[in-house]
Design brief:
The chain has about 80 residues and is mainly α. The chain is built from four helices and no strands.
Length: about 80
């Protein structure tokens, strides 16, 4: 037999608040700090690292060394 599901008023209030967070949002020190860190500092750090180290790694395969190419041409 299926039992009766009893609704908790605190859970229902929490659900209603989560559905309408835009109406209840307030800027405070914690929100400003979170937005500053996650929205500004971390992307700025990633941008700095990307521009600083752009082109320093050689990921593409390199061609043969000049000595190997010179030997191969002399034998031919």
């Amino acid at each position: 037999m299926a039992g009766y599901l009893q609704q908790d008023p605190a859970v229902e209030k929490w659900i209603r608040m989560r559905e309408s967070t835009a109406k209840h949002f307030r800027w405070n020190a914690r929100n400003v700090r979170t937005v500053g860190i996650l929205g500004l500092i971390i992307p700025a750090g990633i941008l700095y690292l990307a521009t600083e180290y752009n082109g320093t790694s050689k990921w593409a395969a390199q061609g043969p060394s000049p000595k190997v190419a010179a030997v191969a041409e002399e034998d031919a």
